Amino acid sequence: MTALKDAELDRLTLGFVPLIDCALLVVAREQGFFAEQGLDVTLSRQNAWSTLRDRVAAGLLDGAQMLAPLPLAMSLGLGRAPCDTLAPIVLGRHGNTIALSHELSSISGAGYHENPALSARSLAGYLGKHPGHRLSLAMVYPHSCQHYELRHWLSLGGLDPDRDVDLSVLPPPQMVEALEAGRIDGFCVGEPWGSLAESREAGRIVATGAQLWPTPPEKVLGVTRSWAHRYPATLARLIRALREASHWLSADPTHRRRAYDWLALPPYLDRSISHLDYLPLDEAPINQQLYGPDMLRPDVETAALFAEQMDQQMRASGRRLDRATLDECYSPVHFDATTHQ
Known about the structure:
Blueprint: E1 11-16, H1 23-30, H2 33-36, E2 40-45, H3 49-57, E3 63-67, H4 70-76, E4 85-93, E5 96-101, H5 102-108, H6 116-129, E6 135-139, H7 145-156, E7 165-169, H8 175-180, E8 186-190, H9 193-199, E9 203-208, H10 209-212, E10 217-224, H11 225-230, H12 232-251, H13 253-263, H14 300-315, H15 323-329, H16 333-339
Parallel strand pairs: 1-2, 1-3, 6-7, 6-8
Antiparallel strand pairs: 3-10, 4-10, 5-8, 5-9
Helix pairs in contact: 1-12, 1-13, 6-7, 12-13, 12-16
């Protein structure tokens, strides 16, 4: 591969939210792939997506792990002032879980099935017999695959997400505690929080994102368009380091366990993944997390599913999704230039 140009920056700070799909960032730092590219990268933990979003937009972070729809929402000015943002590489696909409280899943009969519609119908049947029981369900951000997957799952049971339940936003690290305290009846969030709820017997996984939406990316690297244009060689080196991390993670099953050991360090996920010591990594939902080398290239087509959901949200306020903005957000141009595809 042709040598890359010298990076304009050699010290970077990238944000992340404590989820298993920050793995490529952690591996690239701990295994030295960033360093091999001449980059000294600090990973800065952010507990809420809105905080991470604002810090990237303000230039306080050079870039960040982002929910896949977030660059588009930022570019369109959904939830804050517009900030043109790009997703030059995918960091992971799948990994979300929908969990209900242990009590609710038991009395409603909603359990994990190969067909997620079965659990949704079980819940709807229970609510039909108990009209006074109004559900409170949490997701991580209004413009997220978690929000859209939760709405889709409810609709499979004939439930109207806007009429039959109360939806709220909670940062991922607060989900399990809120479920244990009875403040919410369930949630949709990325791992490890669903399996952690199960391990604490606070909740039960009733569906996964891999069942509901098999194609779209879940997390991406997000950078502002101005940052990408100002530091193209630095961005290319970031992409190369993350690709190397993906190859390393996929090369040997023992590498995956090593990655979880790094994720368990205090700066990253800490004790929130201690339950993975006894959870089989080859079983759902952990084995549904995808961040292999063939999953990293962004493209507009796989973003179309969540873009359609965003367009529907915008129409309610008299706006329409701009196709040119969608095309720019998820263009593979930076990825292809780095990998010469």
